[in-house]
Every structure is written in structure tokens, then in C-alpha cells.
Write a structure and sequence with these properties.
The protein is of the alpha/beta class. It folds into 2 domains: 2-149 and 188-214, Rossmann fold, CATH 3.40.50.720; 163-184 and 216-257 and 266-278, UDP-galactose 4-epimerase, domain 1 (Alpha-Beta Complex). It is built from 9 helices and 12 strands. The strands form 4 sheets. Strands 2-1-3-4-5-9 form a 6-stranded parallel sheet, with helices on both faces. It has a two-stranded parallel sheet with strand order 6-8. Strands 7-11 form a two-stranded parallel ribbon. The two termini are 34 Å apart. The relative contact order is 0.16. The mean pLDDT is 96.
Length: 281
């Protein structure tokens, strides 16, 4: 099967390329295709004739979306609708990734796949727009919501460095680090997410929305503590309130994604230790 991965040199794209080994994997990053350029996408993708399109290209500067909402909506929203329309015209499946930030975070019990999005910041609104346009354009889709991704340093120098990698590097350099002890969420290893994505395709799972995150949740502080412990470091981790690190966006306080269709991925602590002990930091 010819698999086209868009955003292929980013954090998730690199993991997907490995997960789909054995297929004819084509990796495109922005240098090969700017997905916001619909004219170029309508020319290049049909010429390639992929049998599966996986889109993990995205605007992921969450605070930057507050300053540039139009750019975020063009990449996370309008471009997704265009890709879905191209996939429909080619008669192929499209996989697209979204976020827990499409919800307002007021439900402590979490959100299942059928919950109605209610984003409270510009990034969340841009991702919710992409979800809506995807669903309007095509029936043969997997819309995968996930959260707080981490993994090895991406190949693309423009890609965002994950919280886990940033804390791991700081903890090796400093005697003390501080982290926000608020905003619980599921920290998810991209390797696990990519492998779960392949299973959906392999098993011909029903099309629709899926929630794929690690089991369990933690605050940023709790995750930072686990990182330091897993690395065997003596670095002290101090809990601080969000006000110590103010941001421009409004942050949903509880963003647990409940999965009613497939099992959650493995426990977040187990996945985190696996990553930290098998990858050079």
C-alpha cells in the first residue's frame, strides 16, 4: 500500500514512518508540500496516487495561534477540508489528528468520542474547524484525538520540542526545575500512537472518531517528577501554579479523552520510562 505521510519530519510523522514500514511510505514535509496551498496539493497528491493519506502537518504553536488565528485556522482548518476533499476524489482513506483542546475542560469525568467540541482558545478553535470540515468532506476517515505528545527530537528543525524532552534536558543541567502543578492530561508517546494508528488500518476498524492516548493522566509537575525519577537524577522538581508561567491562551483544566471504541494505550508512566531508557537524551 502506498502511504503518504504529510508533516512527515515532525514529531509524530517520524514515528508513523517507522510504524508503517513494510508499506510503500512516502514522507512529505513542508518543503515537499505546504498543505495550506490548495492549488499545489490538488496537483501533487493526485500525481502521487496514494492509497492512504495520513495528515499530521499542523500549526502547533498553541500560544502563537492567539496572535495569528487566521494562519492557525488556514493550516489546522481549511487545509484539512481540502485534503479530505482530495482524498474523497481519489477514493482513498484519510487519517487526521486532532487534540483534547477542542473541549473546554470543565467535565472532570472526561470526554468521549461523541462529545460536542467547545474550544476556549484559538488553537482549539482551529482544530475544531478542521474536524468539522473533514467530516463534511468525506466519510472514509479516521479522526484521531490525542494529547501531550512526546518522543525523540524531530528531524525537522522547525518542529516543536516536546515537554518531556525539554524537562529531561533541563534536569540534566540544573539542580532544580519547576513545573506547573495544574491542568491534568494524558502524556502520550508518539511510538505508541503511531502503532495504534497502524492497527486501525490493519484491522479495517470502522471509520470515525477515535481517542488514542496513554492510560492515566498527570499534571505537568507530576510528569516532570516522573521524568527525573526515571532518569535516576537528583534534580529537585518544584510544583508551581500556572501564574508562575503565564500564557496567552486559556487552558482547559481537565482534558481527559475517554475511549469507548478501543483500549487506551499503555500506562503513561510505563511508556515514559520506555522512552527515556531507550532513547538518548
Amino acid at each position: 500500500m502506498k502511504v503518504l505521510i504529510l508533516g512527515g519530519k515532525g514529531l509524530l510523522g517520524g514515528a508513523l514512518a517507522k510504524a508503517f514500514l513494510g508499506h510503500n511510505v512516502i514522507v512529505w514535509d513542508r518543503a515537499e508540500l505546504d498543505i495550506a496551498d490548495e492549488t499545489s496539493a490538488r496537483k501533487k497528491i493526485p500525481e502521487l496516487r496514494p492509497e492512504l493519506i495520513i495528515n499530521c502537518a499542523a500549526w502547533n504553536d498553541v500560544d502563537g495561534a492567539e496572535d495569528h488565528p487566521d494562519q492557525a485556522e488556514r493550516l489546522n482548518g481549511t487545509a484539512v477540508g481540502s485534503l479530505a476533499a482530495i482524498a474523497r476524489e481519489l477514493g482513498v482513506t484519510i487519517i487526521h489528528y486532532s487534540t483534547d483542546y477542542v473541549f473546554d475542560g470543565t467535565n472532570r469525568e472526561g470526554y468521549d468520542e461523541d462529545a460536542s467540541p467547545n474550544p476556549i482558545n484559538a488553537y482549539g478553535r482551529s482544530k475544531a474547524l478542521g474536524e468539522r470540515l473533514l467530516r463534511e468532506a468525506i466519510d472514509e476517515f479516521y479522526l484521531i484525538r490525542t494529547s501531550r505528545l512526546y518522543g525523540p527530537r524531530p528531524e525537522s528543525p522547525a518542529a516543536k520540542i516536546s515537554f518531556v524532552l525539554r524537562i529531561a534536558e533541563l534536569a540534566r543541567l540544573k539542580r532544580e526545575v519547576s513545573s506547573v502543578d495544574e491542568e491534568s492530561g494524558a502524556f502520550t508517546y508518539v511510538k505508541d500512537l503511531a502503532e495504534a494508528t497502524r492497527r486501525l488500518v490493519r484491522d479495517s476498524a470502522p471509520y470515525g472518531i477515535y481517542h488514542l492516548t496513554s492510560s492515566g493522566q498527570a499534571t505537568w509537575y507530576q510528569c516532570a517528577k516522573e521524568i527525573v525519577s526515571s532518569l535516576g537524577l537528583a534534580t529537585v522538581v518544584r510544583p508551581v501554579p500556572r501564574s508562575a508561567y503565564p500564557v496567552r491562551r486559556v487552558i482547559p483544566p481537565y482534558t481527559l479523552l475517554r475511549s469507548t471504541k478501543v483500549p487506551h494505550l499503555r500506562d503513561w508512566k510505563i511508556a515514559l520510562r520506555d522512552f527515556l531508557t531507550t532513547n538518548p537524551i
